[in-house]
Design goal:
Largest sheet: 2 strands, parallel
Number of strands: 4
Oligomer: single chain
Distance between the termini: 26 Å
Strand order of the largest sheet: 1-2
Helix content: 40-55%
Shape: globular
Number of helices: 14
């Protein structure tokens, strides 16, 4: 088999490779240092468990398995660059972000290894692990019942994520969680984590090894196919998500013409009315509608869209379009209605 040099390969040739054929491993990379750092943090807390890590299609801890999957692209700079080009970001590319994610996933692995989610107090404080994982989740950004570790208020997603995020805060070196969360209801959860970690101090876990699902070596897709599907699943995260519909509502602004209104100016002028009407008829909070409107306005500016139709018609189209997005968001947590999990 031809030797693959990821340092020299052209992008088109790289995209044609099957993921399972990539010459990747954790040993000898910066990921090894991050994993060892987490192991040291566990040792400092007198926790003997060290979750085994492997390269997978994304960040994950398989259900009931005390192992951690790390995205394969983090194992080589060329793949990190490709991930950023294809997805606009590479989750975990910095040491700080990688450590946050590793602490999070370590919480899952440790929970499974010691069967912590079966404890009565765990269920009373965090909820039942058997609760179904929804396609996505709605969060309350100002709630103090949850710690804040990963972006997106991830502790509010599911009882297991609540525990894991609490654990990650507790494990983080140099973080005075008692002071930071003083007066928050979330402090009781942190105190419980501190209590239960002391109870397993020096003890061997019930589960030491687990099955490594979604290993990169099992992925037969080419990188091109992998990213095509990944982009479809995360379409709304890309700037061009709204483009076709916005062009239908407004229209391009030719460089040599002077339009009556730029679309972004139109949206700014009618901002309060648009937010009020959509919030009234959908029941959604105004700050959520405003956040969506800001993204749409910026995209209109980027595309140099202009108002060419009578204002009342444009207003009707804008409100209808944004209302449709908000209703999708209300019922699915996404601005599009066709989102499905995993399957990559």
């Amino acid at each position: 088999m031809k030797t693959i040099d990821l340092n020299q390969i052209a992008e088109d040739e790289l995209l044609s490779l099957r993921i399972r054929d990539l010459p990747l491993r954790i040993e000898g990379t910066w990921l090894r240092d991050c994993i060892d750092q987490v192991y040291k943090e566990l040792e400092a807390k007198a926790i003997s468990f060290k979750p085994e890590c492997y390269l997978a299609d994304e960040w994950l801890t398989p259900e009931n398995q005390p192992v951690i999957g790390i995205p394969f692209y983090l194992a080589h700079p060329a793949l990190i660059r490709l991930e950023k080009k294809m997805m606009l970001e590479a989750e975990g590319e910095s040491v700080a972000e990688c450590m946050r994610l590793l602490r999070h996933e370590t919480g899952h692995a440790l929970c499974y290894a010691y069967r912590l989610n079966r404890k009565q107090k765990f269920r009373r404080l965090f909820g039942s692990s058997s609760a179904e994982y929804a396609e996505t989740y709605r969060f309350r950004p100002y709630s103090k019942r949850y710690v804040r570790h990963l972006e997106g208020f991830y502790a509010q997603y599911h009882p297991d994520e609540d525990f894991v995020e609490t654990f990650a805060v507790w494990l983080t070196p140099g973080l005075d969680w008692q002071a930071q969360y003083r007066g928050w209801p979330a402090l009781k959860k942190l105190q419980y984590v501190d209590e239960v970690m002391r109870s397993i101090s020096g003890k061997q876990p019930f589960l030491k090894k687990g099955k490594k699902f979604w290993r990169f070596k099992s992925i037969k897709r080419t990188l091109r196919s992998f990213y095509q599907k990944k982009q479809r699943l995360r379409a709304e995260d890309f700037p061009d998500f709204h483009d076709n519909n916005l062009r239908r509502i407004f229209g391009d602004h030719p460089p040599d013409t002077v339009p009556k209104f730029l679309a972004a100016d139109f949206l700014r002028q009618h901002r309060n009315e648009i937010i009020r009407e959509i919030s009234l008829w959908t029941g959604e909070k105004k700050y959520v509608v405003n956040d969506l409107l800001k993204k749409v306005s910026q995209r209109c500016r980027d595309l140099r869209l202009a108002v060419h139709q009578p204002e009342h018609i444009v207003m009707m189209r804008v409100v209808t379009y944004l209302t449709t997005l908000i209703l999708n968001y209300l019922y699915t947590g996404w601005y599009r209605g066709d989102h499905k999990r995993r399957g990559i």
